[in-house]
Design goal:
Layout (H helix, E strand, L loop, with lengths): L1 E12 L2 E12 L3 E5 L6 H8 L7 E6 L2 E2 L8 E4 L11 H11 L4 H14 L15 H13 L5 E5 L7 H16 L3 E5 L3 H7 L2 E6 L2 E7 H7 L4 E7 L2 H7 L5 E8 L2 E7 L7 H10 L1 E7 L4 H12 L1
Parallel strand pairs: 3-8, 3-9, 6-7, 7-8
Antiparallel strand pairs: 1-2, 1-4, 4-5, 9-10, 11-13, 11-14, 12-13
Helix pairs in contact: 2-3, 2-4
Length: 305
């Protein structure tokens, strides 16, 4: 059963259609990527899910029933637009936001202490928010988003502004929250993070859904029957000996030796190619070149446009 169902959502702003019949099903305990170019409608959809604004048409269901105001307590939302009260002390600000989530002062204090230690922020508790770097301020907002352990977490560009070490720290925490039973939706332009974290995706372009599904199935759908071969010997000999039905796209030399990219006819297996290569060269490595999410993103958006 899906924890969140978005069904035929439409949203217009002053004659501009931001969302046009967008639907998606978010499975429980999954990490769901919401992708799309700038202006595609992603943030509008996230704001509708969080009931900041309402759809003009369509429905949102949370745990099988129409979403309501009471459900916001079970959702954590980190918007792309960050904001903290600059003159407040960091600990005071974190405690205030935790109490807004319905936590008792005792529980909030205990959990905030754990998170501040985990993120190496113990020395910042009594300093003012305006003294924080951008990355440190984002850590505080991340903590206050997840502190009440909601069933559904929604992150809009959560890694923006973080260095690689802190990006990795957040990724590990997101994976742990999934392991503990949370469902995560995150909107991002970082395709490497999508490949690393997501189970499912929806790609929106110009207000419409253009690609949707389980990420491995999508990569399978966009496979190009291309193979990378690491070999020993003369590239010219390989080129001359390769059967005409196989397309040699390029050869190159790098630290691992000679490499070639070869495309086989659609629908064929790789066995015939391997047999042909064994006749003309020494194979040191052979693997299929699967399309990355960045290539799939560009292709899907280009085809839609």
């Amino acid at each position: 059963m899906s924890i969140l169902s978005v069904r035929d959502v439409v949203k217009d702003f002053s004659g501009h259609r931001a969302l046009d019949r967008v639907s998606m099903e978010v499975p429980r305990t999954s990490i769901y990527g919401l992708l799309g170019p700038n202006g595609a409608g992603k943030t509008t959809l996230l704001r509708i899910i969080n009931q900041i604004t309402a759809p003009d048409e369509g429905s949102i269901f949370f745990e099988g029933r129409p979403i309501g105001r009471d459900d916001t307590a079970r959702i954590g939302y980190l918007p792309e637009e960050r904001g903290l009260y600059k003159k407040m002390k960091v600990g005071e600000q974190a405690m205030y936001l935790a109490r807004l989530k319905g936590m008792s002062k005792q529980d909030a204090g205990r959990k905030l202490k754990t998170w501040f230690e985990k993120f190496e922020m113990r020395g910042w508790w009594n300093k003012k928010v305006e003294e924080l770097s951008k990355g440190m301020a984002q850590k505080v907002q991340f903590i206050t988003t997840v502190i009440h352990e909601p069933a559904l977490l929604i992150f809009d560009e959560p890694f923006s502004g973080f260095d690689p070490i802190n990006v990795n720290l957040l990724k590990q925490e997101i994976l742990q929250m999934k392991k503990n039973g949370a469902t995560i939706i995150f909107s991002t332009h970082n395709m490497a993070s999508v490949e690393e974290l997501c189970d499912h995706i929806t790609l929106i372009n110009e207000a419409e859904t253009v690609l949707q599904g389980e990420i491995n199935a999508i990569r399978e759908r966009y496979r190009t029957s291309r193979y990378r071969v690491t070999f020993a010997g003369d590239p010219e000999k390989l080129s001359r000996g390769l059967q005409k039905r196989f397309e040699l796209e390029k050869t190159e030399q790098n630290g691992t030796g000679q490499q070639a990219i070869i495309r086989i006819p659609e629908g064929d297996g790789s066995g015939d190619l391997i047999r042909n290569l064994l006749e003309i060269t020494e194979i040191r490595a052979f693997h299929e070149v699967l399309p990355g999410m960045n290539d799939i993103f560009i292709q899907a958006v280009t085809e839609h446009e």
